[in-house]
Amino acid sequence: MHIRPNFLQQTIESAITFIYPAQCHVCKKQLGFESAPYICDTCWKFIEFIQSPWCEICGIPYTEDLCNSCATKPPRFGKLRTIAVYENTIQQAIHLFKFNKRYSLSHTLKQLILDNIPCDLNLTDYDYVLPVPIHKKRLRERGFNQSTLLAKGIAKVVGLRVLEDVLIREKNTSPQSSLDREARQTNIKGAFKIQNADIIRDKHILVFDDVFTTGATVREVVNVLWDADPMEIDVLTLARTLNPY
Ligand SMILES: [Zn+2]
Ligand SMILES: [Zn+2]
Predict the structure, then answer these.
(1) Residue 178's pLDDT is what?
(2) What's the 30 CA to ligand 1 centre distance in angstroms?
(3) Residue 37 region, left (φ>0) first, then alpha (ψ -120 to 50), else beta?
(4) In 3D, which of 34, 75, 7, 32 has the Cα closest to residue 244?
(5) Domains, the chain
(6) Ligand nearest to the CA of 55
(7) Which pick of 2, 114, 214, 222 has the fewest CB atoms within 10 Å?
(8) Ligand 1: distance of its center to the CA of 113 in Å?
(9) How remote is the CA of residue 225 from the centroid of ligand 2, in Å?
């Protein structure tokens, strides 16, 4: 019998919740009838959303048009926008979803993104959303690419097309979170390659990733994508740290 992996994962999640009375993974309070799994409704309310004014390019909260970093050395994307600051609830939710395979959180996170799309980002302006790929070995271990899953959820609602076969992760890099800023850039160098480049020529591309920290991954992805001559590359991430790009 063939059982869909998503169904299996969700069944296992429900069984675990039944056996162990659930606590909120952030504040440890006993969970009642909450609107999302694993994290209580109160903790969801403490998410720090990134609001304008922000730097027009890198999206970091800033009162003038461009932050110092973008004014002196502009990045190669048009703009980067992010839903929330990477801390507390959102950090825990992404961690549970990604590493503990709490698959059902993908629906909550997808909705969080859709409900808080930055005011100057119009999703229908793009030809494609391109989730940052993970290496096939990691995909086998994890069972899913968290960014692809979220991107597909968003794309389905707004009628966007998701590109999965243009950017390939060739190098199975060490997890970026274990490295410092300099090491991240070296680690990620040469990790991606393009195939079927014609698909994105002259197109408007929205790169999507779950977390943005030093920007090393996004920088490398954008550099590689420009080789295929798209018209425009913007970036959307679910969460980010607030250091400049
Ligand atoms: Zn809580
Ligand atoms: Zn900036």
Answers:
(1) 74
(2) 8
(3) beta
(4) 75
(5) 50-240 (3.40.50)
(6) 2
(7) 2
(8) 20
(9) 21
